[in-house]
Design brief:
59% of the residues lie in helices and 10% in strands. By secondary structure, it is of the alpha/beta class. The chain is built from 12 helices and 6 strands. The protein is elongated.
């Protein structure tokens, strides 16, 4: 503001070619190549939105490009949710396992079940709830019921793992579907879990690993919780 009002005559003498070079360098530095590659590899929908928004920015205007990108992203997201929507009949004896989950909480373990699509609005809410978990040593991300996931949603588990790890909380994952794996791999969300062997096919396996970790650390006595588990 000081330069604009006090030194405008001097600034006006700067060649436009020099200012153009500054703008080009700034624009290039604003683009994260890694993020673009991750979105392009995640799903066809993410790649389509990326290309469409870029073309609209060049051909039309930045404001129109953002509006078009949001509209297309919303339409594709709703279409994906509609395709994944289904009504499952759940046996009465299955319940919601609240008793087992409360028992796990007493053992400093939280089995966090994620239901439905994980993207956009649900992503932010999920992250806030997860990072506010208190008095736990292990968090298990139960992802078998995630129906739809895009690149934005895939960044949420990655960020959650990083934040919880910084707080000294061990994070495990269970029930990741093949369709989700490609999206999660594209943003590097599974790399820390796979590297340390913290990804499991089912929740009972993850719970056994969590208890073993706590027993090894001396937080739980040996043999704690044998015969108790959360199904699914």
């Amino acid at each position: 503001a000081v330069i604009v009002f006090a030194a405008a005559p001097l600034v006006s003498k700067i060649p436009l070619a020099a200012l153009a070079g500054v703008l080009l360098a700034t624009a290039v530095r604003m683009v994260e190549v890694g993020s673009l590659r991750a979105m392009a590899r995640a799903t066809r929908s993410d790649a389509l939105i990326l290309v469409l928004t870029a073309v609209a920015t060049l051909a039309l205007d930045l404001v129109y490009a953002v509006i078009i990108g949001l509209a297309v992203a919303g339409a594709l997201a709703l279409s994906a949710v509609a395709q994944q929507a289904r009504l499952d009949r759940v046996p009465l004896d299955r319940g919601d396992h609240s008793a087992e989950e409360h028992a796990l909480l007493a053992e400093h373990i939280v089995a966090y079940r994620i239901d439905g699509p994980l993207f956009f609005a649900a992503a932010h809410r999920f992250l806030l709830e997860l990072t506010e978990v208190a008095d736990v040593r292990v968090v298990i991300l139960r992802m078998s019921r995630v129906s739809t996931m895009d690149a934005t949603g895939a960044l949420v588990p990655k960020d959650a793992v990083e934040r919880l790890t910084r707080r000294g909380i061990l994070v495990l994952a269970s029930g990741i579907r093949p369709g989700q794996r490609r999206v999660l791999d594209s943003v590097g969300a599974l790399e820390p879990l796979r590297h340390d062997g913290r990804e499991y096919a089912s929740t009972p396996e993850a719970i056994r690993a969590a208890r073993h970790h706590l027993e090894t650390a001396g937080i739980l006595p040996a043999g704690t919780g044998q015969g108790r588990t959360v199904r699914g």
